[in-house]
Amino acid sequence: MFVLDDLLFRPLIGIVDTLHSLALQELYDVEALEDERKENRLLYELGERSEAEYLDRKETIEAELELAREVHEQFASGRVEVKR
Amino acid sequence: MSNSNRYVYGIVNTADTGDIEFETDAVAGADRVYTVSHRRLGAVVSNIDTTDPEETDEDAQIHDDVLREIMDHDGGKTIVPMQFGMAFENDRTLKNVLRGARPAFRRAMSDIEGRIELGLKLVTQEDGSIDRDEVEDAVSDELDPIAAQAVQNDRFSDRLVLNRSYLVDEDERESFDEAVARLEDRYGDDLLVQYTGPYAPYSFVNVEIGAQSQ
Fold this sequence. Notes:
The complex is a heterodimer of chains A (84) and B (214).
Chain A: H1 2-27, H2 30-45, H3 51-76
Helix pairs in contact in A: 2-3
Chain B: E1 5-13, H1 14-17, E2 21-23, E3 32-38, E4 41-48, H2 57-72, E5 79-81, E6 87-88, H3 91-100, H4 102-112, E7 115-124, H5 132-143, E8 149-152, E9 160-169, H6 173-187, E10 191-199
Antiparallel strand pairs in B: 1-4, 1-5, 1-6, 2-3, 3-4, 7-9, 7-10, 8-9
Helix pairs in contact in B: 5-6
């Protein structure tokens, strides 16, 4: 019975783990957030965004970046558990 | 909190520049930059209380501004610029790095002597579209013959049609400005143009210094 469980479910659990990891990486994509930070600055410098818009967006992105870095750190150290 | 760590802006040849020292707004709230020298190489530094400074927009701007001040200091100086964030434990560790990377600094200095870096970004208008290949070709045709070198930078936004840095002889600066102006005339209705500089030639110096690499 246990052997059957292993054969049937272990591959499935592996796939779920992988999908979950990928989803986490996309949700907390540090590189994409860094790009967004640079774009925000560029559009402000080009006059397309007002200072208020720029600062507001900057604050949001920096908060998201901090969270994303934290999640990645925890993920790398194995402290983020995949719940099933 | 101690300020015994050293934040490095760039490296100069002190045989040409002498010891550089002036008061200015420096990274992390410091108010003075000065030279830490080993033989004829000098690292232009300010004091800091960390070896891992956070890159805020403000401090990144200050880093650039200090480099520009050094470039303009006392009739103009050649400086091998460091990227933001190079900080060392103390003078001794910094001097060890200067000693170890001496040949690389010398080469870099000779590559950038009398040259400046200029940046060009072309950005589509919001919801605008343009033949990107045609623009890139036109920019290359105008600017590449004048520049000593060009590098393509990161396209961090979908709206960036082009993001390049150019190494330009100071003598060619006027011709380069005129060529950029022609591009602005040609594409100004369809594209936002950001022409920046002069900078110390970051993009054309490939010296990594630090505890792990030199």
